[in-house]
Amino acid sequence: MPITPLDIHNKEFKTVLRGYDRIEVDEFLDDIVKDLEQLLRENAALKDENHALKEKLQHYHDLEQTLHNALVVAQETAEEVKTAAKREAQLIIKESEMKAERLVDEAIGKVRRMTSELDELRKQSEVFRARMINLLKAQLDMLENEGWDQRETAASLALD
């Protein structure tokens, strides 16, 4: 157990022959008590300051850990956002490619249908043209034959 200023102040020494001067010893002990009290106060103040500094240090360690955790979370979040953005971009690209392919397929189908319709119209036009030519030829033949018939009729009437 450490000695306190009160222990020093209350300490009684035996008196012996040819011992120390009692007044001088008491004055010295009083000086020691004062110095010890001062040192104890300073020690207590230093302990308080040390405790406060340790609390501050702990606060800064906690703050550092919080900042580190926040940084890790931010990095993870950024990575997740980046990954999600890449995934979404790939999805958009894939959907666009599929849509473009569908549009191309539709256009090709439309071209094929129109080509088929055009071919059909050409065939119908050829059939119509051939029929028209045949009809015109028949009409022409008829006209030519009717003209002959009328001349023959007129000639036979004139001969009669």
Key terms:
mainly alpha, 160 residues, 2 helices
Walk me through what this model shows.
The chain has 160 residues and is mostly helical. It has one domain (5-159). It is built from 2 helices and no strands. The chain is rod-shaped. The termini are far apart. The model has no long low-confidence stretch (mean pLDDT 90).
Which shape, going by the Cα principal axes? rod-shaped
Rounded to an integer in angstroms, the radius of gyration calculated over CA atoms is 63 Å
**Count of structural domains:** 1
- Biggest sheet record: none
Strand runs, count: 0
Number of helices: 2
> Terminal Cα separation, in Å?
178 Å
Structural class: mainly alpha
Mean pLDDT: 90
- Quaternary state reads single chain
Q: What's the order of the H and E elements?
A: HH
Share in helix: over 70%
Taking pLDDT < 50 over at least 5 consecutive residues as the criterion, the unreliable ranges are: none
What is shown here, in short?
With 160 residues, the chain is mainly α.
Task: Itemize the secondary structure elements and their pairings.
Elements: H1 5-10, H2 22-159
